[in-house]
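Write out the bound-state structure for T5A.
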Amino acid sequence: MSRGFFITFEGGEGAGKSTQIDQLARSLREEGRDVIVTREPGGSSGAEAVRHVLLSGAAEPFGSAMEAVLFAAARSDHVEQVIRPAIERGAVVLCDRFLDSSRVYQGVTGNLDDDFMRNLERVTVNGMVPDLTLVLDIDPEEGLRRASARRGTGAPDRFEKETLAIHRRRRKAFLEIAKAEPARCVVIDASMSADKVTAAIQRAVQLAMAAASTDRERSEA
Ligand code: T5A
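---
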């Protein structure tokens, strides 16, 4: 593959994104592919420095627009330092959350203006739109239960602690994005067993990679 392939994992809290990224990375590496696993907020040294400020709630008093700006600053560093170089050298990049999380968490449930979010996204992503986005869909009650069981006695973060009604709005918003962008997004039922989710993801990834190769061959012919 000359250019790499950029896959993002999206969805609510505790949907199983990290679990499934590990599985997919393992199977792609077994096929001999160069795989980069990364996450947001974070993924580059500059962005990891901003991660704690965002997830601890230290930026919450600034309001959702300024939180969106901080997520954007972290994403810009991550795109330019990690994602774009990896894609240009032909790697497969697996990213735990990306632009759709900002659209949903800051845009929809932060009640931010569409134009503001669109302009911020354009500057931040700078053309690095995912080739495939896997939306792991789960009832927020179950997702939060899983996230809480994994966390043990630790406190929920800035976004996890919000009301069930807000998490439900987020689920709906992720599904609306997937419906509006069917060429990029595939919805995966994340309530199934982890093995079944892995199998569904592998099918979606194989199909998307095969379609991308065909498109490239056609455009080079
Ligand atoms: N955010 C992020 C924004 O507001 N705007 C943005 O632009 C971005 C990028 C990040 C937070 O930041 C917000 C969104 C988030 O609130 P985070 O700590 O990085 O927070 O965590 P999350 O991305 O939310 O991910 P989680 O850690 O909550 O969950 P995962 O990764 O989806 O789930 P995972 O794999 O850790 O699984 C959770 C538990 O469930 C089990 C696992 O073993 C684990 O214990 N599990 C299953 N159990 C049963 N059946 C299955 N199929 C299972 N799959 C996993």
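---
The beta strands are 5-11, 35-39, 92-96, 132-137, 185-189.
The domain at 5-220 is CATH 3.40.50.300 (Rossmann fold).
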